[in-house]
Amino acid sequence: MAPRSRPLVLDDVSKAIIEQLQTDGRRSYSEIGKAVGLSEAAVRQRVQKLTDAGVMQVVAVTDPMQLGFYRQAMIGIRVSGDTTAVAEEIGAIPAVDYVVLTAGSFDILAEVVCENDDDLIDLLNKRIRGIDGVQSTETFVYLRLHKQFYNWGTR
Amino acid sequence: MAPRSRPLVLDDVSKAIIEQLQTDGRRSYSEIGKAVGLSEAAVRQRVQKLTDAGVMQVVAVTDPMQLGFYRQAMIGIRVSGDTTAVAEEIGAIPAVDYVVLTAGSFDILAEVVCENDDDLIDLLNKRIRGIDGVQSTETFVYLRLHKQFYNWGTR
DNA sequence: CTGACTTGCCACGGAATCCGAACCGGAGCG
DNA sequence: CGCTCCGGTTCGGATTCCGTGGCAAGTCAG
User: Fold this and answer.
1) A with B: how many residue pairs have Cβ under 8 Å apart?
2) % of residues, chain A, pLDDT over 90
3) Which nucleotides of strand D come closer than 7 angstroms to any CB of the protein?
4) Percentages (nearest 5) of helix, strand, coil residues in chain A
5) pLDDT, tens digit (0-9, with 9 covering 90-100), for A90-122
6) CATH class of residue range A12-52
7) Mean pLDDT, all residues of chain B
8) What is the DSSP string of chain B?
9) Name one GO molecular function term (chains A, B) (predicted).
10) Residues of chain A above pLDDT 70, percent
């Protein structure tokens, strides 16, 4: 949770390792080593370094729909005053899984995951719009998730 | 890439397994089994089923910044005609990692990952705005990613 | 140049894990 | 009752994980 580390240049081998784990996070070190031309131990050390440095993390990602969260939305938020403070507060809400400060007609974009429409309404009215500094919000209800990639690493 | 398997109810044990893998995608089956009260083989079978069904996938997620992608943005797109077709075309662009059909003042939201501003400009002008049916776009350049969670599974 | 230090990789071996297959018990059904 | 399906457990051999030690190639100071 603390990516406090130097730039940490990534050579081609590390990129290759990341690509391997992007396609399958459970691939064995020796298999990766075979693919990138390194020994098992070397791969292991590099993966450890990469995760320690916060460059990469291996996790399970899920389909919210199939877990009972039937309503997702992106919320554009206009703020007066310190955007960071507001972002902090919004990020503290459990239903919010993604917060980013932006330039443009919104100051903050927040993605939320709710079980149903009632939860979304409550979230908006009772939580987000009540935050000090929030001027206005605009909600984009998700109709269909069409693409979701995690392998933007090296192209 | 094809979540073609509808019903598949998730009991508490499967949810617990998912939570384990959400905190660490490389945790061993036996360790998970110990945590959720199942044998190693049973955990393995369930994980296999869950991934096959598209409920969950274990992957490496990376910090784009540390991989040389210094410019991210969300692009709101207004479309005339079939939104699905446009979404399909946008999703085919490598720099686009996230596409969702929405209700609201945008028809499509697309997150893009670029190396720099020039790439972003080219992406917008030469790729996205050239797609048939795209009426207008609005770009929200990311200033700072503030929160990003993958563990929305069960709360 | 040289010696101390650092860094990254490989080799190795014991412990742990993975993984396929066999087995088992309960539920549903004719 | 016999049969099948399902999900769990057990089991054993192959594989992987992981700590450790060694080695070669820098780097730096004197």
Assistant:
1) 216
2) 79
3) 7-11, 15-21
4) 35, 30, 35
5) 999 999 999 999 999 999 999 999 999 999 999
6) mainly alpha
7) 90
8) -----------HHHHHHHHHHHH-TT--HHHHHHHHT--HHHHHHHHHHHHHTTSEEEEEEE-GGGGT--EEEEEEEEESS-HHHHHHHHHTSTTEEEEEEEESS-SEEEEEEESSHHHHHHIIIIIITTSTTEEEEEEEEEEEEEEE----S--
9) sequence-specific DNA binding
10) 92
Q: Which two tokens stand for residue B150?
A: 């993958």
Q: Which residues contact B115 (CB under 8 A, 6 or more apart)?
A: B68, B69, B70, B71
DSSP-derived letter for residue A27 is -
- In angstroms, the CA A148 to CA A143 distance is 14
User: Which pLDDT tens digit goes with each residue over B1-29?
Assistant: 433 334 456 889 999 999 999 999 999 99
Question: Which nucleotides of strand C lie within 7 A of protein CB?
Answer: 8-12, 16-22
Distance from CA of A138 to the nearest CA of B (A): 8
Q: Exposure pattern of A90-111 as b/e (b: 16+ CB <10 Å)?
A: bbebebbbbbbbbebebbbbbb
| CB neighbour burial string for B28-65, b if at least 16 within 10 angstroms, e if fewer | ebeebbeebebeeebbeebbeebbebbbbbbbbbbbbb
Which has the higher per-residue pLDDT, A147 or A2?
A147
Phi, psi of A56 (to 5 degrees): -150, 150
Question: What residue spans define the domains of chain B?
Answer: 12-52, 64-141
On whether the B64-141 domain is CATH 3.30.70.920, my answer is yes
pLDDT category of residue A5 using cuts at 50, 70 and 90:
very low
